[in-house]
Amino acid sequence: MKLPSCLKRNKILGISLPTFISGSFLLFLVTLSINVSENLNSLWLLGQTDLFYQINSTIDKIKLSLQPKQIAIGFWGDVMLARNVELLSDIHGTNYSFTKITNQFLANNYNIINFEGTISNKHSRTLSNTMSFSVTDKLVPELASVNITHASLANNHALDFGPIALKNTTQKLLASNIIAFGNPNEINNDSVVYIDLGSYRLSVLALHTLYSTPLDEDLIKIFKKLNETSDIQFVYIHWGEEYKSAHTEKQFALAQKLIVLGADAIIGHHPHVVEDIGLIDGVPVFYSLGNTIFDQYFSLAVQSGYSVNFFIRQQNLEFTLFPFTSIDNHSQPRPMKKGEQDRFLEELASKSNLSLRENIKQAKLIFPFELASSS
């Protein structure tokens, strides 16, 4: 019997065992434990000696190491670091807007944001009520420090200062190891990012639809490629109408089209408020996550949002919802307290697809998925 390398020399996962215990005997115990007893209580019948406590603990660790690692991806809404957000960071420090939700970012392997603005070579602070967002490059390292790994530029502010500034934005983000993807005008190779999930490959397509709806032939072409090169396909989309708490007919029609083409989840942003969660042919549609970081303060709705944290568990696509609010301090989101979260999820559930309501209240959605491992 050929043993795994971790069973050689009677040292497993850093724990040394007595030399008279052979690798074959240990492998037998591991197999017996996995097949017969999930909680390993049966091994305790062998005697409560230090030796068997050690074996028991070791087998627990081996079992954990044999399980596929769960890779978590956080999807967030609009992040705008210009105007008053820049002013607040000058006063309180560059980490001001992130400090209370840093742990939520760090809990994920990857985090994807919609980057609202442009990092221009000639930056000047954006004045209040101005709609062209110039972002200082000194805030970019803060994005990286909280583990923001991807930034979509498929939105209506990526070209605020023209194509040269857009290129500079991409370069400045990449200099901090943040992958910029998505094009504000068209669907091309930059529209897609791939993320390795271990045995599976996820593709995320960034779309911007405020000024025009993508052409059918362009969508068909890109989804043909995605279906051939990835196991799971998500769409991360800038769409909808500002300050509407429910999706529009146009959003629904486009969502239907994307799902027919192969989308396994659709995650939206732009309206600056949270919209409902839909379900089309078994595929979840998170119509709008609301603001993540912004300088809008005129209502509770524009200061409330949530992230969608995605991972694969036991052949299921799982999505957990993380609500937050910046109602206490301008442009500084924090996790909602228990009562706030319950009310938020209750309201979100009440306007969402009927079959999802109870799950939304529990902040977790699970969808069975037939996954074919990438080769």
UniProtKB/TrEMBL annotation:
One Pfam match: PGA_cap
Keyword hit for Chloroplast: no
Protein known as: Capsule synthesis protein CapA domain-containing protein
SMART domains documented for this protein: PGA_cap
UniProt KW keywords: Membrane, Transmembrane, Transmembrane helix
Organism: Candidatus Kaiserbacteria bacterium RIFOXYD1_FULL_42_15
Transmembrane segments: 12-34
Family: Belongs to the CapA family.
Domain annotation Capsule synthesis protein CapA: ranges: 72-296
